[in-house]
UniProtKB/TrEMBL annotation:
This is Acetyltransferase (GNAT) family protein. GO terms for molecular function: acyltransferase activity, transferring groups other than amino-acyl groups. Keywords: Transferase. CDD domains: NAT_SF. It comes from Candidatus Methanofastidiosum methylothiophilum. InterPro entries: Acyl_CoA_acyltransferase, GNAT_dom, Trichothecene_AcTrans. Residues 8-163 form the N-acetyltransferase domain. The keyword Ribosomal protein does not apply. The keyword Transferase applies. Signal peptide: none annotated.
Length: 163
């Protein structure tokens, strides 16, 4: 699909967008094959609604959406995460970028690039020191163009749901 960029509307998400934010998050997870337990779908929807209701429109979370001809076609999110300050993170403020999703028919039109630019500007206004994200194979080249690098120290995680 060729997009007329003049018709793209970039705006901050509001509470009215919560159903679409939930839908797009699930589409993203499905595309990444992270949704393996169908029993958790309803619980996931409930928890996503709680999250967006609690954080959307606060100083700790920002979400941009993109509309094209009245249809939502892309989403993004940035959440503030505090840690004790360190030399390379003197404010102790990280930002985690998530929910980067563009519907397949609208991809390859620079929409994600514009969303990342907006999130980086928001991160600067929030006085964040470092931005983190988990990149897909399709998105990693774009993030590297903005200066994202592999972390100096390896990142590991413990899934407490399996502990």
């Amino acid at each position: 699909m060729i997009i007329n960029r003049d018709k793209l509307v970039f705006r901050k998400a509001t509470s009215k967008d919560i159903p679409e934010l939930i839908k797009f998050k699930i589409l993203l997870l499905d595309e990444l094959n992270e949704y393996t337990n169908k029993d958790n779908l309803e619980k996931l929807k409930i928890e996503l609604e709680k999250f967006f209701t609690e954080y959307l429109e606060t100083e700790n979370f920002v979400s941009w959406v993109v509309e094209y001809e009245g249809e939502l076609i892309a989403t993004s999110g940035l959440i503030l995460w505090r840690v004790p300050p360190r030399y390379d993170c003197v404010h102790g403020k990280y930002g985690y970028i998530s929910n980067m999703y563009t519907v397949p028919k609208a991809r390859r039109n620079g929409i994600s690039t514009e969303l990342i630019k907006k999130l980086i500007e928001d991160a600067k206004k929030m006085n964040l020191d470092i931005l983190n994200l988990h990149a897909t194979k399709d998105g990693i080249k774009m993030y590297r163009r903005f200066g994202f690098k592999d972390p100096k120290d390896p990142e590991i995680e413990l899934n407490l749901g399996n502990y």
